[in-house]
Structures are given as structure tokens and as C-alpha cells.
Amino acid sequence: MRLERGQPLFWTAHWERMNAGVGAMGLPPMESASIWADRIQKLAQANHTKEAIIRLQISRGIGGRGYAPPIEPSLTSLITLHHAPEWAQPKPKSWRLSVSSIRMPSALPNVSMKTCNKWMQIQVKREALQLGLDDAMILNEKGNLTEVSCANCFVIEENCLITPPISDGCLDGVTRQQTMALARQLGVHVKEQSIALEEALRSDGIFLTLSTYGMLHVSKLDDRAWSCHPITLQVYDAYLSSVAQTLNHH
So what's the pLDDT on residue 250? Predict the structure, then answer.
């Protein structure tokens, strides 16, 4: 997630998702969102920075060898700060994608949770970089779109936004949820439904959503190229406005 003006952006939504993941793993609940926000802010202050990418990892704590959890798990946390890319204005940054040869098994229960088990995403990104591209679109076992290695995807068809449902094997991203809400406020019809690769290639445009950049325009997927669609620009402008409003509120 991003740190802007010393504040973790959209922190409550990130905390809620993380706490749900902790609970799904049978671990004790996290402390309150305000306690964690205070820890993040103190780390940023100690490093004399107000702009950064925050990485918060939580584990089950110290245990014996093997996969069995401790009898009384005690959460261990690690917070790190990293360089934050500049916000692209007025247009979102563009990425070029391939279609990954790796398939996402949609039935796995952990694919919709943000965990440290990222072998698949690492291989997807490595494959794309070897082709001189920015990332790769991951399909599930049915050939439907899921996400790229680090972002959710939206397809534009006749002034309608379509994004894969979580059941197809994608992460329920915080920025994904915000994008759907903002688009609906703008009067754009939004649907969560399966998207075949052929449908995506015939679409009017594709963009990605993620916390670090907000949104990314997909300028190319395999041999199909797009210019930045007006809906992409409209939703991106609304997203930047929501960032500004959140910061001004604090």
C-alpha cells in the first residue's frame, strides 16, 4: 500500500482484508487499525519519509519444525518501507502484457487472499520480463482472465466495465473495490463476470488496478494494442480525486 503525506492510504480497507486473511488461517485477530496505523507512521517518521510503499507481513510466530501451527500462536509482524513511484498525470502509466503460460487454479482457497506464497506470481513476472514486457495476464484453468502478477484487471466493452469475479481466481484487491465504486458513482455500468481471452482481445480497452500506481493502462496484450480509453481516463481522474480527498480529510 502507499504512504502519502505520512498517511497509509485507504488503510482501513487494507487492514480489514488483512485481518480477514489472518482469521482464515486460524490465527488470533490483529490489533485495531489505529494501532497498526500508528506503528506505520512511527516507522515512516523514524526514516524521515512521508512518501513510500509500505509492506506489512504477519506470520504465526515462532513454532516447531513442520507445518503444524503453534498451540498458542503469537503474531509476528514485519513492516518495511520502499520507494514509491510518482503518480502519473494526467494519464495513467501504460504497461505492455503477454499472456502467461502459467495457469491459475481458481479452486485453491488461498488465491483470493494476499499471502507470501507468491511462487506463481514470481514466475509470471519473470516470464514477462524475459520477453521485454511489463507483466503477463494470467488465465485460469478454463482460459478466463484472472489478473496479472501484481494487479487486478478491468475490460471495457461498450462503455461497460467488466472485471473477473473472485471465484475465477483473482485477489479481491482494495483498489479493485474502490474502482468499481468510483465507476458506479460516475454512472458507468460495472459487472463481475468471467472474461475469456478472446473476449478481452476484442474489447475496447483494458486497465489494471493496484495500490502502488492506482491504475495502469494496458497498451498492448500479445499482438492487440489499445489507446487509452476515455473511461480509463475518467475513472483514473476520479481515483486521484479520491486520494486527494482522503489526504485532505486527515
Answer: 63
